[in-house]
Amino acid sequence: MTRIEVLGPGCANCERLYRNTERAVKELGLECELEKITDLNVIMGYRIMSTPGLVIDGVVQFSGRVPSVEQLKEMLS
Amino acid sequence: MSRSPARLARLLLSLAGALLLWDALYGVLQRAAAWFTRDLLGLDAGTHLASAVEFFLYETPKVLLLLTLVVFGVGVVRSFFTPERTRAILAGKAESVGNVLAAALGIVTPFCSCSAVPLFIGFLTAGIPLGVTFSFLISAPMVNEVALALLFGLFGWKVAALYLGTGLALAIVAGWVIGRLQLERHVEPWVYQMTAGEARLPEHRTTWKERLDHGLEAVRDIVGKVWPYVLAGIAVGAGIHGWVPENFMASIMGRGAWWSVPLAVLIGVPMYSNAAGIIPVVHALLEKGAALGTVLAFMMAVIALSLPEVIILRKVLRPVLIAVFLGVVTVGIVLVGYLFNWLL
């Protein structure tokens, strides 16, 4: 099953990315494990330099921006 | 995604149209405000109320228009920069050169305070010196496009340019000073233990449409968030403009009171606000005799140092280093305040 992690210590942008991702996943009907990571040590493990970030199955997709639900759906399908 | 020339041409055409519209609106504002106040609302010129209302009706659309334009422009410029690219540019540069570059890049690299820690770690592990990293961290929040747009709109280009120049100088010198003090041992040890490395982000060629979208999104985001503060700030400013007598502020914040600069800065440091809320108030205070240097120093102190950012940085910096950071920047701002007062 796909594992999706939203990385962010908890600011407004990180929340928004999580909500957008949640919606994208629901609209696609995707079977996946969606998790929000706020632990800085884990986030740093992915070596991103700006939050929020999105990780799919351990691979960083992007960092530092909040794509729209539509853009996320494109990325996830 | 097709990148046909026709599409790009359409984009540029709509952009040109928008700019023309902007210019037309901007040009007509002052007369519109006067007409609205005197003819439509029928307020007698010269009364406090008329004065305040006209101020409000002129300044509000003017500031919002300026803000929109500048945020859009900077949003597009920012699409060319990423923290990863900035780090690549800064890695391997000696200090001094590094400090200057870092301060300059702080303006155009997208940055939000919750990214402070990942960015800090990313810079240090790439070998960027501590002082250079601080130059970036000081210039990024302080020299921001909202502050510059508002300063330009309310006080003219000279003040905006001075703010930009001294902001950069402050970031460069403060970062350099912190570097000289050799405080690396006051960075939390686990930071240096992290191995260098970089997330391999998938290739993404940004199209011009995406860049313009980025600008538009920035406008929706920032102006959308900030406009209530602008309105409130201008309303307060309008009140002060209309009712507070001239030179009322001169005794407390005027040039004569030498202690007003450090006092204003000390009050400003623990406060945090976005530039939009503070500047219109600053404008009105200035009209009533407050010295420009004092209010600008106050503004810098409010914007540059924020409690949330300090709390976040505590994760990677030990108290001594945080104290030095705060101290150096505060002293710098006080000096800038005196400089402004002396120059203007």
Question: Can you walk me through this structure?
Answer:
The complex is a heterodimer of chains A (77) and B (344). In chain A, helix 1 crosses helix 3 (69-76). Chain A is built from three helices and four strands; from the N terminus they run βαβαββα. Chain A has one domain (2-76): 3-Layer(aba) Sandwich (Glutaredoxin), CATH 3.40.30.10. Chain A is 40% helix and 27% strand. The two termini of chain A are 14 Å apart. Chain A is globular. Chain B is mainly alpha-helical and 344 residues long. Chain B has one domain (11-191, 209-344). Chain B is built from 16 helices and no strands. Chain B is flat and about 70 Å long. Chains A and B meet through helix 2 and strand 4 of A and helix 3 and helix 5 of B.
Topology (elements, then pairings):
The complex is a heterodimer of chains A (77) and B (344).
Chain A: E1 2-7, H1 12-28, E2 32-37, H2 40-45, E3 53-56, E4 59-63, H3 69-76
Parallel strand pairs in A: 1-2
Antiparallel strand pairs in A: 1-3, 3-4
Chain B: H1 5-40, H2 48-78, H3 83-90, H4 97-108, H5 116-125, H6 130-142, H7 145-155, H8 157-180, H9 189-193, H10 208-243, H11 250-253, H12 260-268, H13 275-287, H14 292-304, H15 307-313, H16 319-343
Summarize the structure.
The complex is a heterodimer of chains A (77) and B (344). Chain A is α+β, with helices and mostly antiparallel strands.
